[in-house]
Amino acid sequence: MMAQFLEIKQGYPDALLFYRMGDFYELFFDDAVAAAEALDIALTKRGKHLGKDIPMCGVPVHAAEGYLLTLIRKGFRVAVCEQMENPAEAKKRGAKSVVRRDVVRLVTPGTLTEESLLDARRHNFLAAFTQVRDEGALAWVDISTGAFRVMPCSAMRLSPELARLAPREVVLPDHILPDLDGIVTESGASPTPLGQAAFDSAGSEKRLKELYEVGSLDAFGTFTRAEVGAMGAIVEYLEITQKGKLPLLRPPVRELSHGTMQIDAATRRNLELTHAMSGGREGSLLSVVDRTVTAGGGRLLERRLSSPSRNLDEIHSRLETVSFLVEQGRMAEDLRSALRKTPDMDRALSRLGLERGGPRDLAAIRSGLGAAIELSEQLANAEALPERLMQAGEQLIGHDELLTLLDEALVAEPPLLARDGGFIAPGYHEELDEARQLRDEGRGVIAGMQAEYAAQTGVSSLKVKHNNVLGYFIETTATHADKMLNPPLSETFIHRQTTANAVRFTTVPLSEMETKIHNAGSRALEIEKRLYSTLTGTILGRAAHIADTARALSEIDLAAGFSDLARAEGWCAPEVDDSRMFEISGGRHPVVETALRKTGEPFIANDCTLSNGNDHAHIWLLTGPNMAGKSTFLRQNALIALLAQTGSFVPAKSAHIGLVSQLFSRVGASDDLARGRSTFMVEMVETAAILNQADDRALVILDEIGRGTATYDGLSIAWATLEHLHETNKSRALFATHYHEMTQLADKLTGVENATIAVKEWEGEVIFLHEVRKGAADRSYGVQVAKLAGLPASVVARANVVLEALEKGEREGSGAKAMIDDLPLFAATPPAPPPTNAEPSKVEEALQDVLPDSLTPREALNLVYELRGLLKD
To answer: SUPFAM superfamilies, alphabetically (predicted)?
Structure first.
């Protein structure tokens, strides 16, 4: 056995080998050591190899999926090795023959299909990248849904595209893996090398033709050699990992980079589109706008948010559909009610295609098609449907025959596994019903035979029993056995066994009935398995149509979800056109507003105008203190643009947005110690990417450029950056800064306008109004913010002294050293006096003993009048 393990393991040196032994998957040698540590399970030993103990650990087969998920998340790959024959068959070759085993599947991060291993609302992409001379291409597939896409992509564009797709695994030619390993790993994906032959365009084209059974790929579009190579490598990798059982892949769709808004990895991270800074979904834009009720709709929403469209016709079509459902609120709710009954047909189809499905996947197709018919009827009864909904409605019909078949064939709630049986409905198959009747009524038949034998022998205590050794047998006490051992009864009753307290017999009819009953159960199960295969084949024969229906359901779900969001939150329909307009009235940050609502605080809405006309600037230079809301204001305008081109209503009173080609965000401070980058270096790298790539249709938000270095260095960098955005990039931009000197640029650059976040000072305290107004801030209020943060009173007092001296020196023109020399030493500064308790006011005294919960409405009103009188006194 161990020789067999080592032989199989040689073919999968980079994977843990799950070696099937009965009801367990067992691991040996280094695999066992690694798995035991990763899974936190016991490490034992089994036998010896070269004189040393063999480490071993194991996991139960029935619980293997949970262990697989843990291993995949920790970066392991797992080769699943199954028994390919029964132990009885192996014994026929000799008593010491080893059961034949082979790897049936290689489990990797990008090839998961099990429901328990996947996030239902997220795609699980496997990607492949290759280059042919100066031409690059990126292909990606989700084998759990069949989605298959490809696009031209240079090595320079690989990082932002991986950030957009967030694949779990990226296959690369082994010779370029070292150059791109860092980019892939940084995106959160697992890099996997594959031989260059897998990416060869000629071999790849042949594999693709065989997969789709076509003579030419022209029916799918025109692809470059690199694109064909990337797609072919994915097919090759799937053949390797799935051991020849290819999933149901839809025809490949070619995407173009200019078809979607370009968003780099840093911007996605800063704007928290699909993941919050903390790493989870909670607190992201996706978590706030997701009102979808199906898994497919949730995945479509994430795709749209990650890839907002730049096609005006597509954007207008999406917005038109949402507007219709906003106006038809009752209809939208009816659609959502029907959609809630819709299971994940895409993933059920994929599991059936890979022979990893079960009766519940058949039932999922049945339920999904049933919901589709209900939705189609609702759409058919509506008037003036938008074209997008009409097209979706057409994809929902045409399944009547299949639905009738599944309704008749399946029980209401099938079991998980086909091998358990019990999923075919009674009355569907006559032979199956007969086998089940004999299987289920066998006890009654045996009871009848027992009564017959008791009457025949005159032994009322006679019993017909069963065990695994004798099967069915007749048992009586030794006292009554003599009758049955002697003629004439001995001719009917055949002696089987004598025990200390009883004698056991059988009869020819009892043996025959035992055979029938025994065979009935296995025959019924065999018939059900055969029917399962037939039903699965029928479904797979209509897989393309079912997939189109699933896609239509997701489209309807997303539009209905957006309409529900717009109605509930009071969002408006944006006007999106081909101009350079950017006018937002009463804009709000959807995530911050949701968070504030939980605390009962209102969100202060603000306007933003970045139009490039004669009367308006296309760059706002935003000044004001920390904590006042500058970063929120910057982000909310970026998110409004992104939501509009996603096809959603937006959180504003009104919005007019000229098409945004690229979205760039440089907000917040962070370092990258693993790559040797300081906070300032990260800031400069991100800023450089913006200035080198942004075009005149881009929207750029920049916050505190240059703050990570010396004051004058930082001011110089920020100044030059703003000039470059204005003169060279000509982008629409929001530029927040603490360098008040930069406000002078509004007088020199025609496209720059000053704006500030309003604050109010009251009794030495600063109150943030969170209102954006035209004009420049006169100070930063940094010391006040430090006080709010809880710095010791002595530190705040000292900071005020230093600030006053520095500002005085700047006004008088003295040098920084002279200003510092004039300051008294901190040690000589007396500590701030402890706060004194002021005498309580008359109002405070009147309220001291009041218990609000015990007041009646009349008493509360009288108290208000009483307090008012005290204030006048």
So the answer is: DNA repair protein MutS, domain I, DNA repair protein MutS, domain II, DNA repair protein MutS, domain III, P-loop containing nucleoside triphosphate hydrolases
